[in-house]
Amino acid sequence: MAKRRKDQDVNVFLGSDSSLEGLLTFTGEARLDGAFKGQIKGTGRLWIGPTAKIEANVEAAQVIISGELIGDINATDRIELTVPGKLKGNISAPLVVMDEGVNFEGHCSMASGEVLEEAKKVTLLAAGK
């Protein structure tokens, strides 16, 4: 059996019969299957499992949602919503992936400030200015 790289190990796990309130900070990978209310800040991947009920604003590199989340998400890499995921909140990431059948209510922004500035430059060059 191949050994997983250390940065892929789950550093935080909240089981389906657990609940927690407050500020959750993590590096690496975190998986939430229970109830959480508060704020989540991480530099790695956050998995929100199918039994999770989360009320939090989230900052992470990657966020994968299969459960329920109420709150805004700011991801530096990507956001994925998979069935039976439900999300009520605004999302911002360079890449957003949604499966057919997920429930999303909010606004989506897929361009960072740097990307918008580059797009303006390309438009100006294409216009011959």
UniProtKB/TrEMBL annotation:
It comes from the Bacteria. InterPro entries: BacA/B (IPR007607). Pfam families: Bactofilin (PF04519). Belongs to the bactofilin family. This is Cell shape determination protein CcmA. It comes from Dethiosulfatarculus sandiegensis.
